[in-house]
């Protein structure tokens, strides 16, 4: 199953990519015919861990935020966009992800009603890296992509998105690097104490009786300086309860239905309602000590603890006879353009769901940075950090229906497609009637790999631990009398280890039998006791179902037996992936003139050596017996990543910035696992010699995967308009991607060692047809492609037109991205998941004399959405275009007895924009529909 022949191919590709980037670097070196500039200081590169990049705030509120962000962009030789806080403890939006979604080239995908994951320049969350004060962070998610709602937004001064690379930027991503920056207490002008409280209400009443529509967010921040302003302390605490109400609809798919004239027909659907409550509390602490100009020490700590509870209730209707529903379609159905849009179907069996999901997670991050001035021109910097995230899920499903395995009463339903693509489903049975409904496995879906089980519920209990330790050291020095004004060399060692453990159980009625099997006499159903009923029933009338059985899933769980799920597919999900990474880098800073024009920049290279390891097990079901083999493997490789960045000021306040670099990002952690699930499907014996017809197959990860590679060219034109934070920017970018991971790659494999599991007669057929050659499915670096895009930004305070318009302004961005990815086994190009061709954001604001008002509209074109499918495996569908409007209004008292008090009212998702995905082949075929409703907030802040 090894991928040994692929290693040399990857090294050859890496060499080719390096050559391309080196030529771009050589072209940039021609600029070194410039003369040195002695009058100007060095331009800050991507901020080191001890120095945040902040502009001078000359106004307050959103104008201060835009001014600070503009200064960061202007003063950096790399291409960077930024969001800055309006004041201590106050980012300009409800969450970090909301704020970042206003940056050009950045889009947010809404999950569970919140902006959680980000795509930068068309590349999904796994292609960017998130840093905290310059240090790489772990995540409570399943892979590398950070879920930004784990970070309380009140704790950050700036959030910078670096879009071009720099040699001193460790763990940079291909799409970009997001750096979350906490405030530095010694940079503050005075001691400050800020308290804030905000209430939240969703326009929808609670959709489940155990949900809520009300929430809150509270925070307090203290910043103080002591010992003659040589010691600074910043402390912050935050707590929040955030509710979400979601009306959901999910379609199984749309098969061609012979009983309906060969037209497309709704295969099945599940209308349900979901009530979430996210509870999070956290704290930060920063201690900054600068006893002299020769020594500066900073210690940062962040802790976040959250628990999210989700109540989900709905009914799954299997509809299409072609997909085994057993239904009978009545004559007189309606067809439009080959799709049945209205029909009556009898003889159906539905599955009711009362589910409970709980996620508990903790995230801690510690960092200690020390900067020592060794001489007038040389600094030593040492930085140590530790980041750790733990997560445990409790995912409980409980089922009910009219009887076990279609033995109860059958339903007759009418389906009718709505204008938004969803289907109304109007049943005949009263699904809240406990004299009809029982706790059972209504469609007989339970199967343990060898025999039928009574699956009246199912429980998944995965837990994850993600741990990252890092140590970095660097020397920086100045160079006199040369266009090369400074040098820097450094090294970083990091060790990351992610443990993924999955445990799952079949749930069946108590009272007899063993292991929930039907053959052993396990009861097939259980009457619904009155004490599990909730006082209210849930209505699904937004899609035609007036009411359904509403029970407490935890009380139902107490009525059921739990039997361990030891199917091979379940066992091989347990794995450990670790990465030891040594990074060395060298960098030269450029500061001079070209034709009398100021030029700044940097030239550098990183050398990265990686040893990645994975441990787990290979599991197979042979003769009805599960066999397990423990496995482990490791792989080592080295990457060389050159980079160059230049900023030329052609005219006063008009810059051309150029970046050229080779970058990389590591594959998803679940793709690096070594585990495999081996399957023997006896029904395929005799089907022929094609590998897909072999009774043997295997599916799993690939511990030998190499990082994605990208050769990047960026060019930016930036014009800054005075001191009010105004600027115009036009940026073009090109990325040539290699070693792109194909998640569905398959290779031939000889399964002859498993022939002994077959009977002699079966073995003879398989050998005669050469069917012991089957397929091993595992990800592989077979893809390559290109991304081309343009970003435009206009930050315009209207004072650039007239002083009479002081206080008014706009901030608008637009992005176009085109991508094509090809895999070796599929010449048809695909679009990057998460990429919209067109993305636009506009903010209009007014702020003056303490009063502020603004509205932000975000729009994105259709995109390939990545969703969690069956068994949490990723699925890709076409996401419909969406536009989201947010608005807020507020007032800050600046004098009198209320001085320091601010009040704020906010509204989120005023357009009530649903999240909708469809089949890529036909946008009428809606697969997922989620409507979150509008959220309203009222808050007060007091600053002492």
From TrEMBL:
A Pfam family: Plug
Compartments it resides in: Cell outer membrane
A Gene Ontology term for the protein's cellular component: cell outer membrane
Predominant localisation class: membrane
Leader sequence segment: 1-39
Annotated TM spans: none
Keywords: Cell outer membrane, Membrane, Receptor, Signal
Domain TonB-dependent receptor plug: 75-173
The keyword Membrane is annotated on this UniProt entry: yes
CDD domains for this protein: ligand_gated_channel
Entry keyword annotation includes Membrane: yes
NCBIfam families in alphabetical order: TonB-Xanth-Caul (TIGR01782)
Protein name: Iron complex outermembrane receptor protein
């Amino acid at each position: 199953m090894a991928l040994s022949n692929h290693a040399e191919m990857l090294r050859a590709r890496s060499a080719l990519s390096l050559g391309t980037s080196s030529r771009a670097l050589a072209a940039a070196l021609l600029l070194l015919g410039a003369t040195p500039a002695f009058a100007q200081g060095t331009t800050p590169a991507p901020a080191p861990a001890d120095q945040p990049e902040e502009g001078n705030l000359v106004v307050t509120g959103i104008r201060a935020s835009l001014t600070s962000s503009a200064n960061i962009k202007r003063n950096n030789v790399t291409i960077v966009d930024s969001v800055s806080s309006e004041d201590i403890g106050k980012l300009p939006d409800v969450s970090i992800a909301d704020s970042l979604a206003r940056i050009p080239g950045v889009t947010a995908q809404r999950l569970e009603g919140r902006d959680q994951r980000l795509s930068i320049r068309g590349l999904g969350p796994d292609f960017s890296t998130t840093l905290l004060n310059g240090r790489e962070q772990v995540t409570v998610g399943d892979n590398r992509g950070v879920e930004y709602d784990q970070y309380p937004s009140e704790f950050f001064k700036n959030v910078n998105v670096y879009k071009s690379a720099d040699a001193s930027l460790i763990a940079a991503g291909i799409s970009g690097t997001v750096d979350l920056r906490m405030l530095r207490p010694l940079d503050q002008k005075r001691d400050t104490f800020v308290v804030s409280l905000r209430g939240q209400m969703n326009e929808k009443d609670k959709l489940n009786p155990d949900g809520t529509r009300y929430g809150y967010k509270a925070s307090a921040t203290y910043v103080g300086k002591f010992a003659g302003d040589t010691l600074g302390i910043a402390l912050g605490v935050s707590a929040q309860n955030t509710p979400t109400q979601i009306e959901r609809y999910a379609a199984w798919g749309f098969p061609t239905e012979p009983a309906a004239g060969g037209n497309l027909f709704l295969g099945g659907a599940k209308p349900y309602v979901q009530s979430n409550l996210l509870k999070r509390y956290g704290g930060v602490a920063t201690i900054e000590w600068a006893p002299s100009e020769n020594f500066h020490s900073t210690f940062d700590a962040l802790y976040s603890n959250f628990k999210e509870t989700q109540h989900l209730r709905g009914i799954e209707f299997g509809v299409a006879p072609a997909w085994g529903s057993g239904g009978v379609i009545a004559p007189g159905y309606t067809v439009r353009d080959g799709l049945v849009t209205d029909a009556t179907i009898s003889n159906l069996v539905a599955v009711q769901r009362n589910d409970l999901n709980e996620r508990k997670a903790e995230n801690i991050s510690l960092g200690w940075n020390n900067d020592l001035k060794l001489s007038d021109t040389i600094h030593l910097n040492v930085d140590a950090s530790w980041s750790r995230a733990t997560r445990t899920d409790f995912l409980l499903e409980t089922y009910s229906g009219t009887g076990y395995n279609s033995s109860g009463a059958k339903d007759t339903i009418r389906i009718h497609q709505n204008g938004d693509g969803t289907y109304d489903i109007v049943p005949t049975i009263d699904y809240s009637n406990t004299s009809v409904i029982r706790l059972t496995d209504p469609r007989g879906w339970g199967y343990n790999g060898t025999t039928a089980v009574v699956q009246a519920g199912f429980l998944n209990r995965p837990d994850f631990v993600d741990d990252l330790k890092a140590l970095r050291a660097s020397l920086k020095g100045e160079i006199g009398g040369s266009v090369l004004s400074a040098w820097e060399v450094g090294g970083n060692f990091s060790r990351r280890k992610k443990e993924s453990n999955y445990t799952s159980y079949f749930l069946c009625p108590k009272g007899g039998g063993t292991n929930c099997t039907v053959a052993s006499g396990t009861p097939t159903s259980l009457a619904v006791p009155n004490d599990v009923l909730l006082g209210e029933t849930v209505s699904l009338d937004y899609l035609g179902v007036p009411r359904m059985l509403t029970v407490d899933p935890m009380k139902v769980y107490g009525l059921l037996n739990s039997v361990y799920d030891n199917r091979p597919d379940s066992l091989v999900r347990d794995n450990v992936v670790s990465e030891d990474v040594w990074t060395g880098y060298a960098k030269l800073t450029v500061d001079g003139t070209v034709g009398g024009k100021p030029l700044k920049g940097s030239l550098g290279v990183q050398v990265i050596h990686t040893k990645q390891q994975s441990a787990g097990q290979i599991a197979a079901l042979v003769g009805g017996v599960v066999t397990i083999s423990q496995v482990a493997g490791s792989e080592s490789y080295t990457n060389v990543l050159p980079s160059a960045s230049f900023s030329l000021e052609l005219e006063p306040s008009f810059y051309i910035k150029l970046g050229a670099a080779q970058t990389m990002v590591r594959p998803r952690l679940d793709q690096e696992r070594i585990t495999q699930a081996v399957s023997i499907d006896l029904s395929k014996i005799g089907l022929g010699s094609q590998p897909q017809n072999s009774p043997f197959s295997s599916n799993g990860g690939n511990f030998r995967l190499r990082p994605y590679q990208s050769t990047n060219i960026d060019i930016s034109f930036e014009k800054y308009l005075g001191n009010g934070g105004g600027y115009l920017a036009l940026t073009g970018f090109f990325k040539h991607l290699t070693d792109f991971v194909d998640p569905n790659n398959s290779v031939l494999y000889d399964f002859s060692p498993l022939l002994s599991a077959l009977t002699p007669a079966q073995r003879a057929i398989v050998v005669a047809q050469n069917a012991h050659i089957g397929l091993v499915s595992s990800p592989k670096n077979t893809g390559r492609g290109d991304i081309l895009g343009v970003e435009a930004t206009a930050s315009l305070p209207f004072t650039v037109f007239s002083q009479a318009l002081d206080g008014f302004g706009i901030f608008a961005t637009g992005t176009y991205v085109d991508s094509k990815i090809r895999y070796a086994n599929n010449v048809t190009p695909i679009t990057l998941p998460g990429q919209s061709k067109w993305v636009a954001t506009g903010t209009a604001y007014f702020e003056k004399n303490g009063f502020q008002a603004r509205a932000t509209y975000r729009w994105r074109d259709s995109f390939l959405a990545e969703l969690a499918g069956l068994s949490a495996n990723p699925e890709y569908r076409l996401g419909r275009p969406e536009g989201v409007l947010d608005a807020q209004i507020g007032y800050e008292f600046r004098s009198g007895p209320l001085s320091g008090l601010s009040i704020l009212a906010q509204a989120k998702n005023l357009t009530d924009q649903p999240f909708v995905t469809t089949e890529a082949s036909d946008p009428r075929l809606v697969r997922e529909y989620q409507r979150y409703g509008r959220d309203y907030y009222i808050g007060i802040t007091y600053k002492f």
